[in-house]
Design a protein that fits this description.
With about 350 residues, this protein is an all-alpha fold. It contains 16 helices and no strands. The chain is about 70% helix and about 0% strand. The mean pLDDT is about 90.
Length: about 350
Amino acid sequence: MTETRLPRWAGLVALPIVNILAALLLSGLLVAAIGADPWQALLVLLRGAFGYQEAIGFTLYYTTNFIFTGLAVAVAYHCGLFNIGGEGQATLGGLGVGLVCLYADALPFYLVLPLALIASTAFGAAWAVVPGILQARRGSHVVITTIMFNFIASTLMVYLLTHVLIRPGQMSPESREFLPHTFLPFAHQALAWLGIPFARSPLNLSFFLALLASVFVWGFVWHTRWGYELRVVGANPQAALYAGISPQRNIVLAMAISGALAGLLGVNEIMGVNHRLLLNFTAGYGFVGIAVSLMGRSHPVGIVLSSLLFGALYQGGAELAFEVPRVSREIVVVIQGLVILFAGALEFLFLPLLRPFVKAA
C-alpha cells in the first residue's frame, strides 16, 4: 500500500506544533512531579521570554546566535553534509573579530565594522574549509573532522588568551577591552537615536545581520545556479557527477559558506556584547544550532522561527529557574532537551496520528 503523505503545510507547520506541544506536555508532567504548578511555570516562562522589554531583548539576543549556527548547519545539510563544527567555526570567527577590534582600532567605526565582518566570515570559512577538503579529497568524514576541529579551536584560543592576547598584569584569560568606538551599537541605543525608549539588553544590531544572512541563504540555495548544484550533490552525488556537477567543489563551497555563517556569531558576542576576546563565548550555541536547523527543516524561515523558540526557552528558562525555586536550572535544561528530542530525534513520532486529520496531498 502506498504511504499517505502529508500536505506540505502540515509537514512544515502542523507536525512541529504537535511535537512542541508534546514536549511541553511531558515537561508539565515533570514539573508537576517535583511539586510545582505546571501552569504557573509555563506563564513564568512565557513572561520571562516576552513579558517585558528587557526579556524581549535577551530573547532576540539568543535568537541571533541560533540563527547564525542554524543556518551554518542548514547549508551543509543541503549538500549532504552534517556540519557539527559550529562551535569551532564560531570561535575562530570571534577571534577574527577580536583581532580587528584590537589592532585596527585606530580606524573609524565605518571601516572597523566591514573589516570585522570580513574577518569573522573569513576565519570561520577557513576553519570549515579544511574538513571540507578532507571530505572531498580524502574521504575523511566531516562529522569526525569537525568534532576534532572544535577541540583544536578551543585549545588554540586557550593558548592565545593565556600567552599572546592576554592583557598584561591580569590573571583572567581575556584580552583588553576594545575601544568604545569599535562597539557594535546596542538595540536600545539605536532606538534611542530614533526617539524610541527601550530597556537595556545585550540585543544589538547583529540581529539584523542574522536576518540578512537568512535572506542570503534563501536566495543562494534556492535561487542561484550554485545553490541548485549544491542541492543536487546533496540529493544524489552520482547523478550530480553524471550531470557534470563536481561533488568535490560543492562540498568545499558548502563547508566554506557554513563556516562563514557560524563565524558571524563572533560579531554578536565579541563586538556586540563582550567587547573583548574571552574563552568559551560560544557557550554551546553551535551544538544547539543543529537542533534549530533540524526543527526548521533547514529552511531560513523555519530556522528563524525555531531560533526564536530556543531563544525564548533560554531566556524564559532562566527566569523560571529564578522565580520558581522548585524548578532548578537542571530541570530547565531537561525541558530544553525534551524540545530538542521531540523536534529532532522523534520528529515523525506523531506522523501516523496526524494523517487522519489532514487531507492527503
